């Protein structure tokens, strides 16, 4: 019988947090209009949705215990999207706001 140690639980919690972050970034990327990405000199919507989908899948598999080899790369992709791409493309969808908040 396998019992989970504290470190196992800690890593599962970290992987779950990465999964939630990746999934939220994926939903935000899917909701953003495709024209907003090239308008702000970011990559295409298809590339971001693909990368975030792969990251969500990897982090979900790590959460379920099937390996965690590239899960931190999915966190990096999600954070790049959330901190750089999302604020820039949201300025296109909401006129009157700058890329990092209202002017």
TrEMBL record:
Listed transmembrane segments: 53-83
InterPro entries: DUF2516 (IPR019662)
UniProt KW keywords: Membrane, Transmembrane, Transmembrane helix
Designated name of the protein: Membrane protein
């Amino acid at each position: 019988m396998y019992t989970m140690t504290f470190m196992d639980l800690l890593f599962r919690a970290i992987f779950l947090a990465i999964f939630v972050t990746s999934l939220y970034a994926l939903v935000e990327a899917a909701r953003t209009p495709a024209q907003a990405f090239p308008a702000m000199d970011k990559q295409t919507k298809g590339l971001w949705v693909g990368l975030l989908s792969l990251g969500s899948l990897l982090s979900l598999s790590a959460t379920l215990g099937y390996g965690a080899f590239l899960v931190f790369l999915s966190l990096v992709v999600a954070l790049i999207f959330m901190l750089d791409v999302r604020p820039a493309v949201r300025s296109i969808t909401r006129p009157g706001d700058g890329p990092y908040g209202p002017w």
